[in-house]
Amino acid sequence: MYGLWRPRVLGAWRMPAAGPAILAINHSHNIDGPMLMGTAPRPVHFLIKKEAFAGPLGPFLRGIGQLEVDRTSADRAAVTTALDVLARGDVLGIFPEGTRGEGDFSSLRAGLAYFALRSGAPVVPVAVLGSAERRGRAIAALPPLRSRVDVVFGDPFRAGDGSGRRTRKALDEATVRIQERLGAHLADAKRLTGR
């Protein structure tokens, strides 16, 4: 990442130094996950669509601890594996919108809230800004080489309301709380970086 672009990492000290954590990252470009893997202060295990594991990339992704998920159905094996990551005290990376988009956290799926409530792990918001820059691209699928990409870590927070409930209502309420916190972090990150 540092050889091809100029990442600027802000607030990495906010990520817990030990214990389970869930990184919730906005997702507007293919390099957002690799950028975070290359700049985060701790190893991150991402839930990645199973299509990315096809061909020679599959063994590499598995070798660096990434997790395969089938997005077409409720993938119980992927859910169990992700919860095991958190139970070990490791870091799980999630794109809470489920796929690439505007990267504005406007449409969250319930998966992030489920993992946060089930594990009790804190959620750390992360904004990756500049990866979707279109001007000056030599390769259409990548941001301009040597361009600045900002990775901004926010303050960890608990998704639950403190009651320990894991009902459907608690999940829906946690999703709303998470969306508010992630949206506020993204706005703060944009102000901080001038993006």
Detail the topology: elements first, then pairings.
Elements: E1 6-10, E2 21-25, H1 32-39, E3 44-49, H2 57-63, E4 67-69, H3 76-87, E5 91-94, H4 111-119, E6 123-129, E7 148-153, H5 168-193
Helix pairs in contact: 4-5
What does it look like?
By secondary structure, this protein is of the alpha/beta class. It has one domain: Glycerol-3-phosphate (1)-acyltransferase (3-Layer(aba) Sandwich), CATH 3.40.1130. It is built from five helices and seven strands; from the N terminus they run ββαβαβαβαββα. The chain has helices at 32-39, 57-63, 76-87, 111-119, 168-193, and strands at residues 6-10, 21-25, 44-49, 67-69, 91-94, 123-129, 148-153. It has a seven-stranded mixed sheet with strand order 1-7-6-2-5-3-4, with helices on both faces. Strand 3 (44-49), helix 2 (57-63) and strand 4 form a beta-alpha-beta unit. Helix 4 (111-119) packs across helix 5. The longest helix has 26 residues, at 168-193. The two termini are 20 Å apart.
